[in-house]
Specification:
By secondary structure, this protein is an alpha+beta fold. It is 33% helix and 23% strand.
Length: 364
């Protein structure tokens, strides 16, 4: 894994921002930069090269195998403060303002004061997430493997749909299927929604049973080798509701409009608007998509209400495109693919059909 290369990107950022070092506490960011999985740790990346990883006794042995940084055992605040006393040249110390709580910020101020440090804390907006948003070839390969397993899960769900099966039963069987196939776990609680339940975008499966004529919304993802997949399809089980058929075709058209713009240089707000302009704002109630990687929701955020709206797509970004339309008491439709931005367009990692005929299913 190119951990030193990733650390160097952080150092470049420090130079651009005029900072001496940055505090990184997000466990996913620590894994990205070192390859070490922890639930709690502190990573200091410095412009001068004095990188240090503080962990408690649970992770000390594993951390000492990390070659890119020096490992220290975190026992209490005093151990960190003593280390700071050896860094009198540090004047500006960055921290992740999107992750660090206000109380944690106050704690850092206290540590620096106790260490007689002259360092001033400077907020940074998701410094590691912004770097993580661009995937290298190895990461894209891992994401494709996760997407392949995720799509196999979709095929499996369709194979077990039958009248009388419950949403909870489908979700449970899917979890078992993926684990037997080597999956590390679900990326999020699967959304299996029958009929009217599909109008709730973040629905949790219940004991509702599948009936002939129902729409089935399937929003699922699996984790494989630390990377996530995410996809959504709707299946019409039996005779489709004419109104929901029109909704489906409208959502599909909106997704296609957004996908047509997915290439380097196009602003996120333009992609979001391409889909949103074709759907009623009253019924399209969430963002167009999000980044996918070591976490199921990463930067960038594809929503013209988010600060990322002015961000241009870049080669190597892996994102979802998932417009939806929801009608309480009737049902809802969402269509989602995970794609990777290429040098002149995009590649679909989901690789499952979504044309009208492909999502019709005759009850067995």
């Amino acid at each position: 894994m190119p951990f030193q290369e990733r650390l160097n990107k952080i150092k470049d950022l420090l130079s651009q921002k005029g900072l001496d070092a940055v505090i990184i506490e997000n466990p996913t960011d620590i894994y990205y930069l070192t390859g070490l999985k922890v639930s709690l740790g502190i990573l200091f990346v410095s412009k001068s090269g004095e990188d240090a990883l503080f962990v408690d006794g649970r992770y000390e042995e594993a951390a000492r195998q990390v070659k890119a940084v020096e490992t220290y055992r975190f026992q209490n605040d005093a151990s960190t403060e003593a280390w700071f006393m050896e860094k009198p040249e540090w004047k500006k110390l960055g921290f992740d303002s999107d992750y660090t709580s206000y109380q944690a910020f106050l704690n850092w101020q206290k540590r620096l004061k106790n260490a007689s440090s002259k360092a001033h804390l400077e907020p940074l907006n998701s410094p590691v997430q912004n770097i993580r948003s661009i995937k290298n070839a190895e990461e894209i390969k891992s994401l494709q493997s996760a997407a392949n397993l995720g799509s196999e899960g979709y095929d499996f769900v369709r194979s077990i749909l039958r009248e009388g099966i419950t949403e909870k039963e489908v979700a449970l069987e899917l979890d078992i299927f993926w684990k037997r196939k080597g999956g590390e776990g679900v990326s999020f609680d699967p959304i299996i929604a029958f009929g009217q339940n599909s109008s709730k975008p973040h629905y949790r499966p219940q004991d509702d049973r599948l009936k002939n004529g129902s729409i089935v919304l399937i929003d699922i993802g699996v984790t494989l080798n630390h990377y996530h997949s995410d996809m959504t399809r709707c299946v019409f089980f039996g005779t489709p509701d004419p109104f929901l058929k029109e909704v489906y075709l409208s959502v599909l058209k909106a997704q296609e409009a957004a996908l047509m713009l997915c290439r380097p240089g196009v602003l996120i707000k333009e992609i979001d608007s391409a889909a949103r302009d074709l759907l009623s704002p009253e019924h399209f109630v969430h963002g167009l998509g999000h980044g996918v990687g070591l976490e199921i929701h990463e930067r960038p955020v594809l929503n013209n209400k988010h600060l990322d709206k002015e961000l241009p797509l870049q080669e190597g970004m892996v994102i979802t495109i998932e417009p939806g339309a929801y009608y309480p008491g009737i049902g809802g439709v969402r269509i989602e693919d995970t794609i990777v931005i290429t040098n002149n367009g995009y590649e679909d990692l989901t690789k499952r059909p979504k044309d009208w005929k492909s999502i019709l299913q005759t009850p067995a």
